[in-house]
Specification:
single chain; 511 residues; Alkaline Phosphatase, subunit A; 2 domains; eight-stranded mixed sheet; four-stranded antiparallel sheet; globular
């Protein structure tokens, strides 16, 4: 613990983002299925936020929320930092704060991930995770190393080649990332007046691949090739695994969680050894959860509403001089950005949507947030407050839609190179983002138009409405209460307050 008994504004910040980390499966939130001793160790000295939620999804939109502080899923899908905005690292550079990125997240270095890393003072990119196009041939010495059989996936992935270069646990991207983060802290803390370290760790994101002893930790009687790529499917979809395979996939996810938890301990050890807790705030968080057979058989991140398994996520913060405990304030990913801005006393030139949590953490003042919006562009828009979760479905054909962007790119899928973002056409016109005078291309999409990838995922199954106050596990769909509770009007008012595109109101039937 910090020697101080009074909250202190930290000089430095470490943010550790673990991708696809399920809140309900880790120790700090009561999870007992998988071992997370180092997350437990960290939570024991921290504020554990119990009502924290996603904003924009999936991976890159969530990072946009955190680094730019602006919800963007209402205006565009997956994309880079735009010309009218800056990552917080730009402002930190002007304030003399040294910023370091350590990551194995391949999307940060692909089309659609541009400009997130460029304003860091320095960055370390650990290669070889997921579909990172790292190697063009198998390691010629791979015989005898723990490579996967070719039959483990129906399509060739970049990981199939990279995996032959991982000969022991320490060669895997997750362990290497944590080692690099710990090394940076050990070598640099105390040598800079102020610093911001962002550890963007792609584990436990798929592939759910680990070496022994982790691989057999939660499923030691599986025979045959390990299933490390989970399906993406709704509960009634064609790819729902059988019960035994489902247990195996879930166990492999747990093995990934426990392995990266083990290596996260390296970072905690340096924070202990160098007594950095006395002047450093440490955040552990994620971008979103991951369905593992939940809700009757949902897997991955398919086209379904943002249920709590995906959308209610961990946020754990260690702060100098703050007594550990639970905090149930309503919060979302852009609030992390607002908190960082207050810590370092910097401002954003573009419009942001966050509410700082500094007062909540230190006891100075409560957060002013009373609701939030979360979702994926072109999918359901979800309204959350302390009492309700309301996922609103488009009323007809999911049109009209529009996309706002001057950096026309999307998530590349290396296994499916034919998937591309539709190009803007002669219907596009110049508009402005709320709070900006910078012209931006606004492209409409009508009924017959192809749309960006994530809006094509799955069909719509109708609205979902949970009374969170009476039904904390959000299991009973109470559509009969939507009108009486004013849920439609609450969502409409939230969209209008954010100056969301008019198309959003039309497609949701809220005009």
């Amino acid at each position: 613990m910090s020697d101080s008994t009074v909250p202190v504004m930290p000089r430095n910040v470490v943010v550790v983002l673990l991708d696809s980390l399920n809140r309900h499966l880790i120790g700090p939130y009561g999870g007992e299925e998988f071992a997370t001793p180092n997350l437990d160790r960290f939570a024991a000295r921290s504020t554990v936020f119990t009502n924290h939620h996603t904003g924009s999804l999936p991976c890159m939109p969530a990072r946009h929320d955190i680094l730019c502080g602006a919800i963007d899923f209402l205006w565009r899908p997956w994309g880079s930092i735009e010309v009218w905005e800056d990552a917080i690292t730009y402002a930190l550079r002007g304030a003399g704060v040294v910023t370091q990125l350590v990551t194995d997240h391949p999307h940060l270095f692909e089309a659609g991930g541009e400009n997130y890393h460029t304003d860091f003072s320095a960055w370390e990119y650990v290669r070889g995770h997921e579909d990172d196009p790292w190697k063009t041939r198998l390691d010629p010495s791979w015989f005898g190393s723990p490579a996967l059989p070719a039959a483990s996936a129906p399509i060739h992935r970049g990981y199939d080649t990279s995996r032959t270069y991982f000969k022991e646990e320490g060669d895997f991207p997750g362990p290497r990332t944590m080692v690099e983060a710990a090394r940076w802290l050990r070598d640099n803390a105390g040598h800079h007046d102020r610093f911001f370290l962002f550890v963007d760790e792609f584990d436990p994101h798929e592939p759910f691949d680990t070496p022994e002893p982790w691989a057999s930790m939660y499923d030691d009687d599986w025979s045959g090739p390990r299933v490390i790529w989970p399906p993406y499917t709704a509960a009634d979809g064609p790819n729902v695994p059988d019960e035994r395979t489902g247990r195996h996939i879930r166990a492999n996810y747990g093995a990934k969680v426990s392995m990266i938890d083990h290596w996260f301990g390296r970072v905690l050890d340096v924070l202990d050894d160098k007594k950095l807790w006395e002047d450093t705030a440490v955040f552990v968080l994620t971008d979103h959860g991951h369905y593992l057979g939940d809700r009757g058989g949902i897997w991955g991140k398919p086209g379904v509403p943002i249920y709590r398994e995906m959308g209610q996520i961990p946020l754990v913060v260690a702060w100098p001089g703050v007594t550990p405990g639970l905090n149930d304030v309503l919060s979302t990913s852009v609030d992390v950005h607002a908190t960082l801005r207050e810590i370092f006393d910097v401002t954003a030139e573009h419009r942001t949507h966050g509410h700082s949590l500094v007062g909540e953490i230190t006891g100075g003042a409560p957060s002013s947030r009373d609701h939030l919006l979360t979702g994926i562009w072109g999918r359901e828009v979800v309204y959350v407050d302390r009492e309700r979760r309301y996922a609103r479905t488009p009323v007809t054909s999911n049109r009209p839609l529009s996309m706002f962007s001057n950096r026309w790119s999307t998530m590349p899928i290396h296994a499916y190179p034919q998937i591309r973002l539709p190009r803007p056409d002669d219907r596009a016109y110049l508009d402005h983002m709320p709070g900006s005078s910078v012209p931006v291309i606004r492209q409409p999409f009508d009924d017959n138009d192809p749309v960006p990838f994530w809006a094509r995922m799955g069909s719509f199954t109708g609205d979902v409405y949970f009374r969170r106050d009476d039904d904390p596990n959000e299991e009973v769909n109470r559509l009969d209460l939507v009108r009486a509770d004013g849920a439609d009007e609450a969502l409409r008012e939230a969209l209008v307050a954010m100056e969301a595109p008019t198309e959003q109101l039309v497609r949701l039937g809220l005009t």
